[in-house]
Write a structure and sequence with these properties.
12 helices, alpha/beta, 8-stranded mixed beta barrel, single chain, globular
Length: about 300
């Protein structure tokens, strides 16, 4: 199916839902962007690799790229709560829900243009989105997935776990259960090495398929002499809970070696892309010239 058709389909759908004439999805040079007020949303797809055999790729993590856009478009002008590094739960989550849906649709459409569809796509969902939807989590995006010719089993919903949302864990767990019941996989993302019993209980209760750590955040928080032991213990515990572990933002050989030796299952980061070559960059030219409008 032509990618331009999908772009027009989602533009028409949002127009009907919001009774607006604006068309936020744009296809240019084989890439899809989304316009949301004064910003333009783009996608960076980062390959997930086997920690022991990093040439083997099993999926991609979608990361948001935000650039200024000066034409007024579809939604509210005040976007600071949407992209803040210190999010808070808001009373009216409608704009956050809309932004989250638009961003994930952009990621999905870009995913279709450059990779085979038998891998897994990791999409981070804002906790405020989950809290803002009271029931049937994932139903709206399930229709997006089907329209793109994919299945929910290939989509991994990523939730960043933060102490800011501790009072809302019950609601977040319920939302993740709804996603899981619709066939989505679940990943929990931490910016610290989990060691406390209560957090492991939370992981066991949610039963995610993946648990994600950030090499960059770990380096800032833990003394290097302690890293191997702590990460080895963490990975052993995650494995005992039936999940697989992922180390993101691996930027040098030190962390690549640490990930391999401490038991991580999967890795991602600039180090691998630089040493092995970014597979997306390698194929992007041929795909955009010969198949830019199809998947």
């Amino acid at each position: 199916m032509p990618l331009q058709y999908l772009v027009e389909y989602f533009n028409d759908r949002l127009g009907r839902e919001h009774r607006a004439s604006a068309r936020p999805f744009i296809l240019e040079d084989g890439k899809v962007s989304g316009i949301f007020g004064p910003i333009r949303v783009n996608t960076l797809l980062n390959p997930l690799r086997n920690a022991l055999r990093p040439t083997e790729i099993f999926g991609h993590v979608a990361q948001i790229q935000v650039n200024p856009h000066h034409s007024p478009q579809l939604y509210a002008n005040d976007l600071e709560p949407l992209v803040s590094d210190n999010p808070v739960v808001v009373e009216d989550p409608e704009s956050i829900i809309n932004f989250d849906r638009l961003s994930r649709t952009v990621h999905m459409l870009n995913y279709l243009t450059i990779v085979h569809l038998d891998g897994e796509l990791f999409l981070e969902v804002d906790p405020r989105h989950i809290l803002g939807i009271k029931q049937d989590h994932g139903a709206y995006f399930e229709e997006v997935i089907r329209q793109c010719g994919l299945e929910t089993k290939n989509i991994v919903i990523v939730l960043a776990v933060s102490s800011q949302y501790a009072p809302y864990y019950k609601e977040l767990i319920k939302g993740l259960e709804n996603y899981h019941n619709r066939g989505y996989q679940i990943a929990l993302k931490f910016d610290y090495i989990v060691r406390d019993v209560e957090t492991f209980k939370l992981i066991a209760e949610i039963a995610p398929q993946y648990v994600i750590q950030s090499a960059r955040n770990i380096l800032a928080r833990v003394h290097s002499d302690e890293l191997f032991e702590q990460l080895s213990q963490f990975n052993a515990k995650i494995s005992s809970l039936g999940a697989q572990s992922i180390l993101e933002q691996v930027e040098d050989i030190k962390f690549a070696t640490l990930a391999k030796n401490s038991g991580f299952d999967w890795v991602a980061g600039d180090y691998y892309n630089e040493v092995l070559g970014d597979p997306i960059s390698q194929v992007i030219g041929s795909l955009y010239t010969s198949n830019a409008n199809h998947y």
